Amino acid sequence: MTIAAVILILVVLALSARWTWWRSSAPGLKALCYHKVGVPPPGSRLKPLWVSPEKFRAQVKYLLDNGYTTLLFSDLKKLHDSGQPLPEKSVLITFDDGYENNYTHAWPILKELGAKGNIFVVYNTIGKTNLWHNPASEPWVNMATLEQLKEMQDSGVIEYGSHTMNHPHLSTLKLEDAAWEMAESRRQLEAAFGREMCAFAYPYGDGAYAPAIREKALEAGYTFDFSFRQGKTPWPWDRKAATIDRLFIRGGDNNWDLALQLSRGASRL
After folding, report:
1. Fewer CB within 10 A of the end CB, N or C, for the chain?
2. pLDDT reading at 232 higher than 90
3. What is the pTM of this model?
């Protein structure tokens, strides 16, 4: 075997270890998970949660150029309630927490390109900062104000779901307190925005696989509950069986990663 052949084999093996192109395509609901769109502040230990505006624009453009339809939570609920299949190429763009940069960076890009997105809002931090983080280890950044959130909703580009009242680790709370975090946030958000909150995401993914906590989420009246586990979810979705998984988009991901997420359910091992 020549040196060139050995090098080629090593390159192929390296790519196989890094990306999942060799896996079979996986069916199911594609729900992308973003957090912050912008440049991480100095000292941030969560830089993978930041996607630059340029990358976000390129990713949304990739979706639209490749024939994807972006769904709102209300679109997904209509499909679920009627038992209809998903459109052949459809994707749910979600953001966790409700940062101001969703308003200043993500929303204008979605609006300009003609795409739609959904934000899971932490009710008690609206107009404040990400208070669940210790600022000594992760800098606080501004959350969107109520006025900004209403403006995005009024545009028809953004809809909202709940991410609890305070963004706690639900499994660390008493069950009745965890239930309050989920039910009260739905009540407050519906009062604030004048529409049904049919979707919920577990902060940190914590509680998504704890039967007692998940039961309280469903009792709170949410149609959909989203985990933080990587993957796609079979559709039609069996609501009683499991939560909806998501495709976590990192700041270092490119369009090749996005394509693998959409087709394989993960881009990396």
Report:
1. N
2. yes
3. 0.94
